[in-house]
Q: What sequence folds into this?
């Protein structure tokens, strides 16, 4: 693995869209008991189901700590690769490399990672093992790496259409805990150079209460060029309403890098999901304080799905909105099987299917 | 990675000779300070030189603990892959998988490992991480695995010619600390079934004082079918003399699996190598006792070389016998470059070049 000091754009590499063909997917076995209930037992079943659904159509590598390797190996089906790799938590989307391709080979981007806000509003400390993962994963896959460690970015805060357009949120990328010394223009230039895009569409916000500072991957995702799904509620009393409404207005007046208008499919949210007292009791404390409060609203959204080669793996919440969401995604991805995962136990950890996966383009 | 419950022989897989084409090689970054002087600093240079020499003609993967990953990554050239994997020590030969091939794919054998003798005369406790490595490495390489965990064997205790013959030592394979409940015949049957060989040549002993219970890979190695090098001394006062003499007699009267007589090349040993007081002072204690005693003789032998695709990587000891040994190996491997490594710091750890490497056949 060589460290490359140029940029993907200058070398003719670009970040492909998630629906372009994958070599495979990286996940991380959940372990920390202040993120995941019952010593992470609850979430593991959903992780295994997610990995299994993805592995039906692409290679899956699951990283597990030395302590959890044996357990992860036992729980994951045998055709899924389990490798030993230490981390602080299990969010592959946010600290596995963002891979870029030139059509024949791929390279990884190592962004800086500071647990969604560092000492300003980060979610845990330390985050050193997470931050080292992109480098270790490039090494594991024998792929060279662009080292952007000086620039804080999580994979969940960007989506691309593979044709020159990136979508992101101001709430996250302009947050005080990431790159406070960079202007919006400078941040956009990083995206242009590293993802090799010509247009960045800036949404203002994401999902209400999303503790990642409102990652785009929980509110809006490309489903094909010039076409997105947007998390939506018709309830004007829900604080989410104004956030989604603002996104819609921006998307309706924007064009993509190719000058196309953008079709927006409203993907209606479940009723607000709140954590119960019993669930909170299943979480360890962090720095002597609880990590969740009973009744706290969780950032549930169907937009947080993963597009595998042969499937769209999406969260279900046991809500009447589950089935309409499934039907909409099935209609938008007619050549893929839509696989719902009962994802409440992932959601309690703070993210969902897209957050715990990172695709590796074909090479 | 699937666990296979049949045997390589029944599936048409065999262990290839070391000179058959490799995909690559596995090594482990040294770390434990009671095996390696100065917190393993001394040996690392020799490990890096060994890995670099091998990587000129095949892929090299170096396993490093979470703590040492960053350091290993910094020290190893960038074209060598470094992966995170925990171990108790750094002897890839003895606990990486023994790979078998059917000509188109390979599978690994996971032998049981108990630190060269378990609670009888093993060299350290615990050995759980070492014992888990074969499984993890099969997983890493996405290769299926024969689980022979019930049978204690180290890779350094066997050599094969790839044409049906295995060579080993009674001192090791019949030792009380390995498989005391198995007869010699039963042990031989394991070798026949797992390596897919038809003839096992049993030498009595290995190198004097070799704390592995005298692994064959330190005293005798195939260099081609029906041709071996044998560690040798002409000094009849050296306790090694009788050990080597006995090996020679056995080899001269044996035939291999194909019925051929065996040509023996004497590979003359260096003068006895002993550890100094200063070197001993550079080693941590184990269980409150020193691991080496000043003046202790080390099991130095030129036989402990590694055959890479394009090189023979051999130990040098700063002895007048270095150069003749190099010349003999150069003559025996005319198509490979012989690369000497100043190996005293590996030797102090208890082994040499062959002990710290494990080849992976082409797949």
A:
């Amino acid at each position: 693995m060589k460290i490359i000091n140029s940029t993907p754009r200058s070398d003719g590499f670009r970040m492909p869209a998630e629906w372009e063909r994958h070599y495979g997917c990286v996940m991380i076995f959940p372990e920390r008991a202040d993120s995941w209930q019952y010593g992470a037992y609850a979430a593991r079943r959903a992780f295994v189901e997610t990995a299994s659904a993805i592995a039906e159509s692409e290679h899956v590598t699951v990283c597990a700590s030395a302590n959890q390797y044996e357990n992860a190996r036992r729980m994951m089906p045998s055709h899924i690769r389990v490798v030993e790799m230490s981390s602080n938590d299990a969010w592959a989307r946010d600290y596995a490399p963002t891979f870029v391709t030139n059509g024949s080979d791929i390279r990884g981007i190592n962004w800086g990672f500071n647990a969604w806000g560092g000492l300003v509003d980060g979610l845990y400390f330390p985050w050193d093992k997470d931050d080292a993962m992109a480098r270790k994963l490039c090494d594991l896959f024998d792929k060279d790496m662009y080292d952007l460690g000086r620039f804080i970015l999580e994979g969940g805060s960007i989506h691309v259409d593979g044709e020159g357009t990136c979508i992101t949120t101001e709430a996250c990328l302009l947050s005080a805990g990431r790159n406070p010394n960079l202007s919006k223009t400078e941040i956009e230039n990083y995206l242009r150079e590293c993802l090799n895009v010509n247009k960045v569409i800036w949404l203002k916000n994401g999902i209400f209460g999303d503790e990642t500072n409102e990652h785009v991957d929980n509110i809006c995702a490309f489903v094909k060029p010039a076409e997105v799904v947007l998390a939506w509620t018709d309830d004007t009393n829900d604080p989410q309403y104004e956030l989604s409404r603002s996104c819609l207005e921006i998307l309706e007046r924007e064009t993509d890098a190719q000058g196309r208008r953008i079709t927006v499919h409203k993907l209606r949210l479940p009723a607000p999901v709140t954590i119960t007292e019993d669930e909170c009791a299943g979480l360890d404390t962090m720095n002597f304080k609880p990590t969740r409060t009973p009744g706290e609203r969780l950032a549930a959204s169907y937009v947080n799905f993963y597009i595998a080669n042969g499937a769209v793996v999406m969260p279900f919440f046991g809500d009447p909105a589950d089935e309409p969401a499934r039907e909409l995604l099935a209609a938008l991805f007619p050549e893929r099987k839509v696989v719902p995962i009962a994802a409440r136990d992932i959601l309690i950890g703070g993210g969902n299917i897209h957050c715990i996966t990172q695709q590796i383009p074909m090479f």
